[in-house]
Amino acid sequence: MNFRALSISALLALSAPSTAGAAGLCEFSDDLSQVRGVSVVVGEGRAQFGATPEAAGACSGKGCAYLLPGDAVVAGETSGTATCVGFQPKSGRTTQGWLPSARLAPANRLSSRIGQRKQIDLQRGKPCTR
């Protein structure tokens, strides 16, 4: 799996306060109240973003945002069969949107340090036994 460090402060800096479930919006606010955990994209091929829960996984063609198996995301609210997620690659351009929940699995090993930096570091390793 290709785990990446996620900087929640950078992920959230571009978002206006709101809730994920309201009118199909997928946005994270500065208070982190919408963050439910960290997940990893699973399955085969591209996991396409959607602007609404109903459109999760449906975008195709040029210009559609997508993730690949092994990419780590910050997971928020779920609506039906979709989960609101945020992703920030090394380039720093944050993407937020809806992915099919079936394409997400909890991160196996998570070392989190959420303080003033609001950062979550993902590490490759054995699953936790707790």
User: First CA to last CA: what distance?
Assistant: 21 Å
Q: How many distinct beta strands?
A: 10
Q: Percent of residues in beta strands?
A: 25-35%
The helix content is under 10%
CATH architecture: Roll
Structural class, from secondary structure content?
A: mainly beta
The structural domain count equals: 1
Q: How do the SSEs run, as a string of H and E?
A: EHEEEEEEEEE
CATH topology grouping? SH3 type barrels
Biggest β-sheet, characterized?
A: 5 strands, antiparallel
CATH class: Mainly Beta
Write down the overall mean pLDDT.
Answer: 74
| Physical arrangement of strands within the biggest beta sheet | 7-6-5-2-8
Defining key terms:
SH3 type barrels; 5% helix; five-stranded antiparallel β-sheet; mainly beta; 130 residues; disordered N terminus; three-stranded antiparallel β-sheet
Written description of the protein model:
- The structure is a single chain.
- By secondary structure, this protein is mostly beta strands.
- It has one domain: SH3 Domains (SH3 type barrels).
- 5% of the residues lie in helices and 32% in strands.
- It contains one helix and ten strands, in the order βαβββββββββ.
- It has one helix spanning 8-13; strands spanning 6-7, 37-41, 47-48, 66-67, 72-79, 82-87, 95-100, 104-106, 110-113, 119-122.
- The strands form three sheets. A five-stranded antiparallel beta sheet has the order 7-6-5-2-8, with no helix packed on it. A three-stranded antiparallel beta sheet has the order 1-10-9.
- Strand 6 and strand 7 (95-100) form a beta hairpin.
- The longest helix has 6 residues, at 8-13.
- It is globular.
- It starts with 5 loop residues before the first strand and ends in an 8-residue tail after the last strand.
